[in-house]
Amino acid sequence: MRRPPRVLLLLALLGPPLRSLSAQQSAATAQVFRTFANHVVKIQVIETGSSAKSTIGSGFFVTGRGHVVTNYHVISSLINAPERYRAELIDSTGTAKKVKVIAIDVVHDLAILSSGLASPSYFTPAVTPIAQGDRLFALGHPRDLGLSIVEGTNNGLLLHTLYPHIHFTGSLNPGMSGGPTIDESGHVIGVNVSTAGNQLSFLVPADRVVALLAKALATDGKRSPSLAQVGLQLREYQDVYLRNMFDSSTQKIAFGPFHVITQPAPFFRCWGDASPARELAFQSARHSCETDDEIYLSEDQTTGSVSVTHQLLTSQELNAFRFMSLYSERLGRHDFSSGDEEYVTPWKCKARNVANGATKQRAILCVRRYRKLGELYDGVLKVAVLGAGKAGLVSTLTMSGVTFANLDRLSRRYLGMITWH
Fold this sequence. Notes:
Blueprint: H1 6-14, H2 18-36, E1 40-47, E2 52-61, E3 67-70, H3 72-80, E4 85-90, E5 96-98, E6 100-105, E7 110-114, E8 135-140, E9 148-157, E10 166-169, E11 180-182, E12 188-197, E13 200-205, H4 206-219, H5 227-242, E14 252-255, E15 258-261, E16 269-274, E17 283-290, E18 295-298, E19 301-303, E20 306-314, H6 320-332, E21 348-356, E22 359-369, E23 377-385, E24 391-402, H7 404-416, E25 419-420
Antiparallel strand pairs: 1-2, 1-4, 2-3, 3-7, 4-5, 6-7, 8-9, 8-11, 9-10, 10-13, 11-12, 12-13, 14-15, 15-25, 16-17, 17-20, 18-19, 20-24, 21-22, 22-23, 23-24
């Protein structure tokens, strides 16, 4: 008997041909789409003055009484300017139905809508065990092109956030926000929320949907969400987020002749760089820490972030006068985030000299207030250590969406943790 070629033996050991495996996966995707497409809706936000669509998103039924989950950012216009906008859903049959926002979770970018539209087909949100690498399916309406399904994989939770998102390796596109990402059995794993392109997409975990839906059904829309509730949720969030920041357990590093803060909390990531070693009048090194936390408020405003940046300046070439001029120029640079005057006041700054033991500092605190969300502020604290000869440190703490009490408390803690090495 003739021996089969070695390559055929290897293929036999490897299992079914790739074409067969691909066909099986395509069949599974098609089956998922056929089974669950009628659970998903398109959300349209309409500007009442022009009667034209201003926002397109997705959502999905979670009760037989027509309750729908979507992202907060899809319907945020209804909260920011309810007199100017209305919203409707369009189901799989093409039926349009006006919707009402009955619950929001601005921190996790979720909203529950009430439509009153009887829906025999709906998902029942629950926490479902899932492993990294498991195959998932995202459903939604990309760019208003019709309902689509996208295959991808679960790649675990993002590490650099207080409340992690799921990293979904799949191509989410604008318009799919608020749609469900499910497993092959139809368990909701998360809600489509954002993308960074190149197969980097992110989901709100299903446990946040479970929690918000329970609250929504308990009140059943008796009190409509408002900007006052958004402000309250932000204040509760930043109290937790900032509670232990810059306390005695915060890590410090030696940075030139100084001690500075690094990694203010476990979910921060830090990195550094420095000017190349060549003939320069001065050298610059940088150490920065930030998170992936960001809360959507409107098209022109995000909040909920904290960052720390240290810049070390040294020179053997510049005389004392020229080095001090360089140092003052770096301290005086104000690269503030822009903001629509509808939402925030102009920046106001105050400067003063302070002392932390033997460490003398020049501190500049700049603040702006949120106009519509109660007593919340953005703040930037810039600090320069004085009397260091030809070495200088410019350290910057940036906070957004915090109460003035937290802004003041953290600024004082921050100043107290910058010292001579």
